[in-house]
Amino acid sequence: MRHDVGRRQFLRLGALLAGAAVVAACTRDGDSGSPAPAGSGNSEPKPGGEITYLNAHLNQGYAQQQVSSWHVLQVWAQFVEYLFYYDDEGALLPHLASGFTHNADFTEFIITVREGITFSNGEKLDAAAVALNLNLQGLGDDSRGITRVANLPETFDKATAISATEVQVRLTAPFPALIPVLAGTSTTGILAPATLKLSLEEQSDLKNTYATGPFVVDSWKPNKEIVLVRRDDYAWPRPDSAHQGPAYLDKITIQQLSEASLRVGALDSGQVDLIHYPQPSEETGLVERGATLLNSFVPGSVWGLHLRLGAEHLDDIRVRKALTHAINRQEIVDTLYSSEWKVATGPLNSSTPWGLDLSDRFAYNPDLANRLLDEAGWTGRDKDGYRTKGGRQLYFFEYPSVFITTSRDDLALIAQQWKKVGVRLELKGVDFSNYNTVAQQDSVPLYEIHWAAPHPVYLWRWWHSSQQNQFKKPSAEFDRILEDVATAPTDAEAFAASKKAQEYVIDHAYFIPVHEFPQNFAASAKLKGIGADGYGRIRLYDTWLDS
């Protein structure tokens, strides 16, 4: 089956996304208070100018497998491009590819590569270069310490250039979602052969990153600053771009500033032009002061808590259900966020076309939470009012995410709410370098995360016991449901299986949804044409300065 795709055609691999990523962008228009789209105005786009962009975190190294966090991806996507991508309406479109074919059982794919594209070091993008990328992503290289891309199936066998423009990808077992995974994974960008042939340490140095994007790395200081400059010969933008040819901006200076309030202050004072993760409570004020706000609610999970089923006390479904019914989601949103943010209605953002509204199954009900805990035997109370059983306190702990800037505030409020029903939650600290290792331990009872899911297969990736295994000890029944998601050959079958998975994690209290979560940005009113794609990556190719 062949898939040659144009600007608004959906790539139908049998189980593809058919919805929209919701992007809210507004500015204050005089005294009217009327919202206007980002980049609106009477001026025409014009080239030139430099901007400063503040990010909460920059990396020590930038080998491709190190760019999976939301912070780093917002930078990486300005100079690295992908074979396929999701646009802001949820359509799966080609970029460095022009189409693909697959056999009947989804074990062989042939990807056609666009012609006329070069990497920033002058190397030509062709099938051989793409095959080199896919083999390193699919298989890794143990001799250099380069790990495989975990989102790609372990049944990846080999990618082979069968012509100058065609790459054959072979799998040892069916995997219908290969193309959506290539489009929806941050670590499947296409890099120049000269970059890929280097050692892991050399690949981590951004001066060695040669890619096809509209900007190139001019200089960088680890954990501090990255300076990008326009690539003047760029001529292959994505189909949803607003213009052709080189980017408008001459230069983008990206700097690390961890404190959200300081990022907001720098934007307010005019010292910078763009910030990632402004404080949600400051969003309304930023708009009132003339800034442009961009909230990209992409298909994927809400912010919530994964419950580790083997951790202490969580083997009892009554305890798990009590925890979810003890959370007042509306209070959290009203206290910590702007009116753009929404309480969770299910495990997935409402922008996810195949997401379910299951809010009636986990609604705030402290009376029910108390009853469930009583039934579970937690009837004693200590001097601080926490529940006890057999001399043990009903106690949980969590490490607030270092990647989600609102994490600690969310969890602190949840701790207050849980205390009202006698549950103690302690927040512990850990640094960036150790967070992933520490938070993934089986003994850590709670794990909070937000992840993009442009395709249902990502539920399998995050939740199946053979994959990310976020619940640590899921049931065999749940694993079978997720396997149905991963192997579904049609839209209807994938969506139906995904709905069963969503119902399962709610009905069995594996996951506690709290609120929807966007990628959010704030920009100076003079910065026009900013936008985000269906993966929540900000796009600065069409961005320009209105002087």
Which properties best describe this structure?
547 residues; alpha+beta; Dipeptide-binding Protein, domain 3; 3 domains; five-stranded antiparallel β-sheet; 27 strands
Describe this entry's structure for a reader.
With 547 residues, the protein is α+β, with helices and mostly antiparallel strands. It has 3 domains: 46-78 and 212-297 and 517-546, 3-Layer(aba) Sandwich (D-Maltodextrin-Binding Protein, domain 2); 79-200, Dipeptide-binding Protein, Domain 1 (Dipeptide-binding Protein, domain 1), CATH 3.90.76; 299-515, Dipeptide-binding Protein, Domain 3 (Dipeptide-binding Protein, domain 3). Helices cover 24% and strands 21% of the residues. It contains 15 helices and 27 strands. The strands form 8 sheets. An 8-stranded mixed beta sheet has the order 2-14-23-13-3-12-11-10, sandwiched between helices. Strands 1-6-7-9-8 form a 5-stranded antiparallel beta sheet, covered by helices on one side. A hairpin with a 5-residue loop joins strand 6 and strand 7 (108-113). Helix 13 runs antiparallel to helix 14 (476-487) and helix 14 (476-487) packs antiparallel against helix 15 (491-507). The longest helix has 17 residues, at 491-507. The termini are far apart. Mean pLDDT is 90; it is low at 5-40. Residues 93-469 form the Solute-binding protein family domain. It comes from Gordonia amarae NBRC 15530. InterPro entries: Peptide/Ni-bd, SBP_5, SBP_5_dom, TAT_signal.
